[in-house]
Specification:
The chain is built from 6 helices and 11 strands. The protein is of the alpha+beta class. It starts with 5 loop residues before the first helix and ends with a strand. Helix content is 24%, strand content 23%. Strand 3 and strand 4 form a beta hairpin. Strands 3, 4, 5, 8 and 9 form a 5-stranded antiparallel β-sheet that branches. Helix 1 runs parallel beside helix 4, helix 1 runs antiparallel to helix 5 and helix 4 packs antiparallel against helix 5.
């Protein structure tokens, strides 16, 4: 049996996290969708690629914006169907152009970029540059797919750009009175923590504090209300207490919650 691709594995992991959030059994999940219990078991275990509609259904049941999971689905479907081997990949977003610049010598260069949210940034993509004369090209350098920083080197940096949000732990989740969802996140490989919010309103603000450092994120426009909004990272380690405070745009009472890194 062929092992699932990394893209399919990431999708299955994200879907399992959503299913856990719904507190639905496989049978209950099947009852609330048009997909059978056995189908959901295959989808969540990465043994079969779920239809796009199944991903959308699970996002709806979990109160999750579709963008992040649909982006993962697009990548998984591309490799599953074989299109990824036959189609030129999309260029990286402008913000990630710097790490994807080719060297002066022809070579095979691949850059993996992780991005989280409808408009989030957050979509993982690969850039493949082929030399004009393959026979004359040197051996490609190893592709770095892991985190781009660790500990204090990550302080104040974006978790998506630094590939720290590829497989983080969710330490705590909170649903606000205004309908926004909040999460405290921790990356063991990066040694950092941060917070994110979604289903928000323009002007909502989120602060995360750890070890005396406070990072803030704010919903700047209406378009961002359907996306994940992340704070920048702060160094953490097992035992560090992370505290998030949500300040609604309506001016209501701030809602705070915390979690300790395990």
């Amino acid at each position: 049996m062929t092992s699932p691709s990394p893209e399919a594995t990431r999708l299955a992991s994200a879907l399992r996290e959503l299913r856990t959030r719904t507190n639905l059994s496989m049978a209950a999940l099947a009852a609330k969708t048009t997909f059978s219990k056995s189908s959901w078991e295959r989808y969540l275990n990465g043994k079969a690629l779920p239809p796009r509609e199944a991903v959308q259904d699970l996002c709806r049941l979990a109160g999750e914006p579709e963008g992040h999971c649909l982006a993962l689905w697009e990548l998984a479907e591309s490799t599953w169907s074989g299109r990824a081997a036959n189609e030129p990949p999309e260029p990286p977003p402008a913000d990630d152009a710097a790490p994807a610049q080719p060297s002066r010598h022809p070579a095979l260069i691949a850059v993996i970029i992780t991005v989280c949210a409808v408009t989030i940034a957050g979509v993982t993509a690969g850039l493949l540059l082929l030399p004009d004369h393959p026979a004359a090209a040197p051996h490609p350098a190893p592709v770095t797919t892991g985190p781009r920083c660790r500990g204090t080197a990550c302080d104040g940096k974006d978790p998506m750009t630094m590939v720290c949000a590829a497989a983080p732990y969710t330490l705590a989740t909170h649903h606000t009175a205004s309908g926004a969802w909040l999460e405290l996140r921790y990356s063991r490989p990066c040694g950092t923590g941060w917070a994110r919010m979604w289903s928000t309103h323009k002007g909502d603000r989120l602060e995360v504090t750890a070890g005396g450092h406070t990072r803030t994120a704010q919903v700047r426009d209406t378009r961002s209300t359907t996306s994940y909004i992340y704070t920048l990272m702060t160094p953490t380690r097992p035992g560090t207490l992370l505290r998030a405070c949500f300040h609604p745009a309506s001016g209501g009472t701030a809602e705070c919650f915390d979690a300790r890194v395990r």
